[in-house]
Write the structure tokens for this entry.
Amino acid sequence: MKLIILLSVLMLGACASDKSRVRTQYSNTNSITSYAKSLVGTPYKYGGNSPEYGFDCSGFIVHVFRQSLGVKLPRTTRKIRYSGKAVQKKYLRAGDLVFFNTLRRKFSHVGIYLGNNRFIHAPSSGGSVRIDNMQASYWRGIYNGARRIN
């Protein structure tokens, strides 16, 4: 009888910890995407990494993850591409990083996936932080992959 009670308690405890982990992942994702969206309209600035001075694509990612989660990422897109774990496109979740070939080299641009094929990024000179659709022909043709930061 004691064995049955012990097993029941252990099984219930395992269920509770899984729910907590899911809740934490959701709140982290919500924190990342909400903060990123609050920066829409911030001007693009090569080498920029703050709302006051503007962002380049990797500066935007580094800033959002540091401010929303306290996660420190490498400063360049080329180095960020090794962070976290690879995710297939069909398994993308809000908060994942999405990479593109914008400079005739793989992983030269990065953004944050928002869901529903949308992502947020700091695009290029003369632009500002904005949300784009990954299914647009331009982005669809230069997609390189995704990473999930845990």
